[in-house]
Design a protein that fits this description.
The protein has about 280 residues and is α+β, with helices and mostly antiparallel strands. The protein contains 11 helices and 5 strands, in the order ααββααβααββααααα. It folds into 2 domains: about 200 residues, Beta-Lactamase; about 60 residues, Winged helix-like DNA-binding domain superfamily/Winged helix DNA-binding domain (Arc Repressor Mutant, subunit A). Helix 3 crosses helix 10.
Length: about 280
Amino acid sequence: MSYVPGRCPTPTESASESSRVVLRRPASRAGRRGSRSLTTPAEVTSRLAQAVAGAGPDAPLADRLGETCRSVLGADGVAIVLAYTQPQRLTICFTDDVIARVENLQDVLGEGPCADAYRSGRTVVAGIGAGDAARTWPLFAEAALRATGPLTVAAVPVPVCGDVLGVLSAYRTGTGHPAPASGLTTHLATAVGMTLLHELDLDHAEVAAEPTGVWAGRAEVHQATGFLVARLGLSPDDALALLRARAYVADIALGEIARQVLDRAVDLAADVSPPKL
């Protein structure tokens, strides 16, 4: 993780391991755009507090956080991803298939507005289908336009005590939409970060025995990376790059190509030259 324990209140101690989050994909909901966007910090804090307090076994916290953020921003969909460009990257939630495809492409290609927001600590707004995006992230912009059509994506760093925990991304269909109000997005992202630090440890018992959901897919990426390191003599970075390249060519998620490698359904040995001794 890119945040530093010890520089925050005690909730950071319970968030020292990102694997403590249970990941579930929420169901899409019809008629969501009709909800009113919140405008004040007090309203945002109150809405997030209600989402946390109301979370139960039939309505996971991650799902409620995602839907609350979508409503606050007046967006068509959102995702929350921790440690965005790190090997331990962890998807907390995504609210629909469109934002899931956007996030998967950035994961596979290693570029895009969310990756830049995580590295820089600044909000990045991009129009998928606009010239600026194509010049800044040529691979991502082309692939995303094919996969989703024109979108406006806002990527907001989730701060924790001066460092960046992850990225909150939101999209609206079409280009040319104005950027969300900076004060609103900053407060929302900060509230999300502190909420996650308070709540990350709650589901530890559920994942301690065996990873599930999206976290299971990420665990398979780590296992496949280690498998390629051992079998092909690659560095961890090169092994992960090889997985990403094959996922991009096959147009599938990184977790899926990792699963195929572990199941011996694909052999990536032919994709690399033998290591020099």
